[in-house]
From TrEMBL:
Protein name as catalogued: Phosphoinositide-3-kinase, regulatory subunit 4
Organism phylogeny: Eukaryota, Viridiplantae, Chlorophyta, core chlorophytes, Chlorophyceae
Keyword tags: Kinase, Transferase
GO BP terms: late endosome to vacuole transport; macroautophagy; protein targeting to vacuole
Record GO cellular component, one term: nucleus-vacuole junction
UniProt enzyme class: transferase
EC numbers on record: 2.7.11.1
GO molecular function terms noted in the UniProt entry: protein serine/threonine kinase activity
Listed InterPro entries: Vps15-like
Domain of life: Eukaryota
Amino acid sequence: MGNQLAAPQKLAADVGELPVVVKDTLGSGRFIKTLLCVHDNGGLVVVKVYHKRGEGTPMAPYAAKLKDIRQRLWGIERSHLWPPQAWRETAASAYMLRQHLWSNLYDRLSTRPFLATVEKVM
């Protein structure tokens, strides 16, 4: 006998209540699943899905923190940080949506063609 680890749950990406269509999976962590989706308006969006475990998960404090983060980062020029642009909560899940970027700052600095000195300064 001994310790047995529980297998991670394979939760379906239930985004039927959102105006998106799932295109690909970007990450499947233990708590948050990250999906690449096509919005009904035609643009690519990243949807982070948190499946609630049990009924005792209050999301109101986190929604207030997300709103504060979005307000603080909104006016920064040339920001490499993109806060969630929208979030929604259902009885079973919580969703965060933001626009998809083709690469992050680390990828842009380490892939060819490398940034010129002038581009690095800006």
